[in-house]
Automatic annotation (TrEMBL):
<dbReference type="InterPro" id="IPR013344">
    <property type="entry name" value="RNR_NrdJ/NrdZ"/>
</dbReference>
<dbReference type="GO" id="GO:0000166">
    <property type="term" value="F:nucleotide binding"/>
</dbReference>
<feature type="region of interest" description="Disordered">
    <location>
        <begin position="863"/>
        <end position="902"/>
    </location>
</feature>
<keyword id="KW-0846">Cobalamin</keyword>
<protein>
    <recommendedName>
        <fullName>Vitamin B12-dependent ribonucleotide reductase</fullName>
        <ecNumber>1.17.4.1</ecNumber>
    </recommendedName>
</protein>
<keyword id="KW-0237">DNA synthesis</keyword>
<dbReference type="Pfam" id="PF02867">
    <property type="entry name" value="Ribonuc_red_lgC"/>
</dbReference>
<dbReference type="InterPro" id="IPR050862">
    <property type="entry name" value="RdRp_reductase_class-2"/>
</dbReference>
<keyword id="KW-0560">Oxidoreductase</keyword>
<dbReference type="InterPro" id="IPR024434">
    <property type="entry name" value="TSCPD_dom"/>
</dbReference>
<dbReference type="GO" id="GO:0050897">
    <property type="term" value="F:cobalt ion binding"/>
</dbReference>
<dbReference type="GO" id="GO:0004748">
    <property type="term" value="F:ribonucleoside-diphosphate reductase activity, thioredoxin disulfide as acceptor"/>
</dbReference>
<dbReference type="Pfam" id="PF08471">
    <property type="entry name" value="Ribonuc_red_2_N"/>
</dbReference>
<feature type="domain" description="Ribonucleotide reductase large subunit C-terminal">
    <location>
        <begin position="155"/>
        <end position="690"/>
    </location>
</feature>
<dbReference type="GO" id="GO:0031419">
    <property type="term" value="F:cobalamin binding"/>
</dbReference>
<feature type="domain" description="Ribonucleotide reductase class II vitamin B12-dependent N-terminal">
    <location>
        <begin position="44"/>
        <end position="134"/>
    </location>
</feature>
<keyword id="KW-0170">Cobalt</keyword>
Length: 939
């Protein structure tokens, strides 16, 4: 934390240098910041989910006792540098922080940021304190690279450019590849490339931007499969007036149809499947850049012109509403394209004299000039909630200015992947300060995420953060100068600062929590305008809201970025190994704020622990349910609730917001249109919408066949099925299982000549409703099997069914199940169906999945296993009981180590982590793994 002034300090030692005067806020002279924490040694051992082998091990690492094991594992495995087993290997968080902060402090001294050596030391201590206490974190490239022998790359987000020449297109491929190789992401707008309706100078017809997307997509896929730490993250943008816009809009939805057809034909099109190479455009997020003119045309249902890239003339007109509908239809089918609102983006642009903002990074939060980059840092909001449930405004403000100072220093020493990016970034010094844990803060203080009060808190905090950041930027401009492009864009930059301040003036407060925050924001914007008028500004951009995937776990955040809480019940890793189920710690604090007594709080927390939601919790008033609404679960936040929250924060951000609006599977194309249109009306810069299960596969149309049948009705006599009963003695097999903490048994009886004939399921306490329902379900399935219903029909219908309990299982072949029914029929398929039928249904054993990864033929492995099983089969099978009452099980209960989280919400088809196999969770518009910290995009 710092308290600073700028300008001449009056100190004459060492030349009486000009610089920032820094005062201690949280540290004390004579006490090192590390001494304010209790430290302990831990062992980090991370295993591979496929076979249980150890994929990372480092024992005796040193971390604060207050850090969770999850944060410890992520930092030790991802950020510690040096070869394992050598003295150079980092083993303490102190070493990691010292390595990074040492470079920042030394660079600040060298380039005149500090008024004295004493100020530099205070800066050093305050920064170390804030990092060690998890107040904030830099983005991952800082931890990867700063202070090492590697290139000092600090940016995670990049924007490239491409012109209408083959040389520029090939440069785009190369530059993207270099960025992907380093584990970062990039975005590009292809609208300068002439369309497939236009001619080349040679007289031939141009290929168009969509054709060149194929090459870039293949390149990204190759780099991803060639050993990068995570999949290539990229964004492709096309302007809505480009003549090829209709082809672009439907690019990925057509490929989704191909994926479904391949899957139905038995090809392996799972994530990373061997047959996915024939599917194109899967390595990028696509977005349409819509203009205000287009949106007004949609509003008035009028025609819209598509313009030539070479002449600028209108070459075709389209029905605007029809095109808008096709955008929504494609997004409904496959989640692409997203939408970016060009009018709003350019209206808040501080550097229009230099060039337009034409693209964004892959997660859509960084929007700036072409060939530029941005380094990110995120503040942990929950650290500033005092014990009396007030927000520590002063500490938050001081941390913001500390972090912005450090981020600007990093541009001074940073390396960049290309010369053009380096030149632009040094000239405009774009920064991206943001925050995490907003959802947890709101819940802890008794605010519903989708409420006027929740939005007022979010808007006030965002305004204070950006106002303080730009005020500090103006102070730094008085010490080390403005950014190089400032004079050229001075009037535009001042105009945008006034727009931010005016938006702050229009912000309405509704509760006691945000009023002092908003008052402080008002003071910060007044100082920002006053100091900026005199000094100018050091940075063209200051703030945005990133997904905060890996670094969110590093800070032990309950929620990432601007997201609400994911679920009310989580699992926590223990220092000694294993894990335990925990209820979100914001719940008891929220209940206290809502006026509940200790006895009531204990009862409600116990209910949530058992059920995963608050509906019908004892003593909880229904009007308080909304406070505990989450992204998933029985009570999920409605889609427009997410949009309105984004709109509350957007006027106070230099960039945009990384967030996907999740909608249920039953959402319609009209719902997508409404959300996209409201995003424009509410002043967002970008928006992406994801419909649950839209990528799992949809039924193909059979309309023509149905019409034919109606025209030619036929009466067909269907033979009546005959029940084939099992003999008195038949072979059977009993399997015990645990799914999401619920334990049970499956007894499967077979005909002597092979073939499943009955299934009995035991789940829940004998005599309970659940046990009775499972008994009835077992009888129904068994009778149907005996009447000839194929097992594969049940497997197809019941796998992927989602309801609680769900989560981790104790079965090495099926590590995650979306419900007990999902697990049961996957297990029955593995035990009773041949490989070819299972493969068509996407059900594989762990050994078969490993064989696929090793490039081997899993069919041969399955054949060998079946042969071995037949030769080892016992001559007599155990007699199966006609009821399941003879088997016993403990009453259903949460199990330690189970991943808890309702599967009745959205994103149930989120991917499994390719590193550790844990189901990932949404993090902005990307995914993040709570198990190992891996992300599917930038962080």
């Amino acid at each position: 934390m710092t308290e600073t002034t700028s300008g001449p300090t009056g100190r004459k030692g060492k030349g009486g240098r000009k610089g920032l005067k820094i005062k201690r806020v949280f540290t004390a002279e004579g006490t090192h910041p590390y001494d304010t924490l209790e430290w302990e040694r831990r062992d980090v051992v991370m295993t591979n989910w496929r076979d249980g082998t150890v994929n990372f091990e480092q024992r005796g690492v040193e971390f604060p006792a207050s850090w969770t094991m999850n944060a410890t594992q992520i930092v030790a495995s991802k950020y510690f540098r040096g070869a394992m087993g050598t003295p150079e290997r980092e083993w303490s968080l102190k070493q990691l922080i010292d390595r990074v902060v040492g470079v920042y402090t030394a660079t600040g001294i060298e380039h005149g940021y500090f008024a004295s050596d004493e100020d530099a030391e205070i800066f050093d201590h305050e920064l170390k304190y804030a990092l060690a206490h998890q107040f904030f974190s830099f983005n991952s490239p800082v931890w990867f690279n700063v202070g090492t022998t590697s290139a000092q790359q600090v940016s995670a987000c990049f924007i490239l450019s491409v012109d209408d020449t083959m040389e520029s297109i090939l440069d785009w491929y190369k530059e993207e590849g270099i960025i992907f190789k380093g584990g970062s992401g990039a975005g590009v707008n292809l609208s300068r490339i002439r369309s497939s309706r236009e001619l080349l100078s040679s007289g031939g017809t141009a290929s168009g931007p969509v054709s060149f997307m194929r090459g870039a997509d293949a390149s990204a896929g190759t780099i991803k499969s060639g050993g990068a730490t995570r999949r290539a993250a990229k964004m492709v943008v096309l302007d809505v007036d480009h003549p090829d816009i209709e082809e672009f809009v439907e690019t990925k939805s057509r490929e989704e149809h191909k994926i479904r057809a391949l899957r139905d034909a038995g090809f392996d099109v799972d994530l990373g499947g061997s047959d996915m190479f024939s599917v194109q455009y899967q390595n990028a997020n696509n977005s349409v850049r819509v203009s205000d003119a287009f949106m007004r045309a949609v509003e008035s249902d009028s025609e819209f012109g598509l313009t030539s890239r070479t002449s600028g003339e209108v070459v075709a007109t389209v029905d605007s509403r029809s095109l808008f509908n096709r955008m929504a239809q494609s997004a409904w089918e496959c989640a692409d394209p997203g939408i970016q609102y060009d009018g709003t983006i350019q209206d808040w642009h501080t550097n229009p004299e230099t060039g337009r903002i034409s693209a964004s990074n892959p997660c859509s939060e960084y929007m700036s000039l072409d060939d530029s980059s941005c380094n990110l840092a995120s503040i942990n909001l929950l650290k500033f909630l005092r014990h009396d449930d007030t927000f520590d405004v002063e500490a938050f403000t001081k941390l913001t200015e500390l972090v912005i100072t450090a981020m600007d220093i990093s541009i001074t020493f940073a390396d960049f992947p290309t010369q053009k990016i380096g030149e632009t970034t040094r000239a405009y010094r774009q920064l991206g300060i943001g925050y995490a844990n907003l959802g947890a803060l709101l819940m802890a203080t008794g605010h519903a995420y989708d409420s006027d009060g929740g939005r007022a808190v979010a808007g006030s905090i965002t305004s204070l953060m950006t106002g303080a950041a730009y005020r500090r930027s103006a102070e730094m401009a008085g010490v080390v100068g403005t950014y190089d492009g400032y004079k050229r864009n001075e009037q535009a930059h001042k105009r945008v600062m006034r727009k931010h301040a005016a938006a702050n003036d229009d912000l309405a407060t509704v509760g006691t929590l945000e009023r002092p925050i908003h008052a402080a924001a008002t003071r910060e914007w007044a100082d920002c305008l006053k100091i900026g008028e005199r000094n100018g500004w050091r940075n063209a951009q200051a703030s945005l809201l990133a997904p905060t995937g890996t670094i969110g776990f590093m800070m032990d955040c309950d929620t990432t970025g601007i997201e609400p809480d994911f679920s009310l019940v989580k699992f926590k890793k223990l220092v000694g190994g294993g894990s335990m189920q925990i209820v979100n710690q914001a719940i008891p604090r929220a209940l206290t704020n809502l006026g509940y007594q200790n006895e009531q709080i204990e009862a409600i927390v116990e209910y949530v622990s058992e059920h995963g939601h608050v509906i019908d919790a004892p003593g909880l008033r229904p009007e308080h349910y909304e406070v505990f609404d989450c992204a998933m679960g029985r009570r999920y936040i409605e889609p427009m609730g997410h949009v309105r929250m984004m709109a509350a924060a957007q006027p106070f951000l230099s960039g945009a917001i990384s967030k996907t609006v999740n909608v249920p599977e039953e959402a319609t194309v009209a719902d997508f249109e409404h959300i996209y249109f409201q995003g424009w009306k509410l002043g967002l810069k970008a928006l992406a919408v994801y419909r649950d299960n839209c990528k799992v596969g949809q039924p193909l149309s059979t309309g023509k066949n149905e019409e034919k049948e109606k025209e030619e009705p036929q009466v067909v006599e269907v033979p009546r099925p005959v029940r084939r009963r099992l003999p008195k003695k038949r072979p059977s097999e009993t399997t015990s299982f645990s799914v999401g903490g619920a334990e049970g048994y499956i007894t499967a009886g077979s005909y002597p000549d092979d073939g499943l004939g009955e299934v009995f399921l035991k789940l829940g306490k004998q005599g309970s409703t659940l046990a009775g329902v499972m008994d009835a379900f077992s009888i129904a399935i068994s009778i149907a099997l005996q009447y000839g219903v194929p097992l594969e029909t049940y497997v197809e219908k019941f796998t992927n069914m989602r309801f609680d309990p769900a989560g981790m299982t104790d079965d090495p072949d099926i590590r995650m199940a979306q419900s007990v029914v999902d697990y049961i029929f996957r297990r029955l398929a593995l035990d009773h169906l041949p490989y070819d039928e299972r493969a068509a249904l996407g059900v594989f054993s762990a050994a078969e999945r490993q064989a696929q990864l090793n490039g081997e033929d899993p069919a041969q492995l399955a054949a060998q296993v079946e042969s071995d099983a037949q030769s080892a089969a016992p001559s007599q099978g155990a007699a199966a009981s006609g009821t399941s009452s003879e088997q016993s099980t403990e009453e259903e209960r949460p199990k330690a180590g189970a991943e808890v989280g309702s599967s009745e919400g959205f994103m149930a088809d989120a991917p499994l982590c390719i590193t550790c196999g844990t189901k990932m969770r949404p993090s902005g518009s990307c995914y993040a793994c709570e198990g190992c910290g891996a992300t599917s995009g930038c962080s």
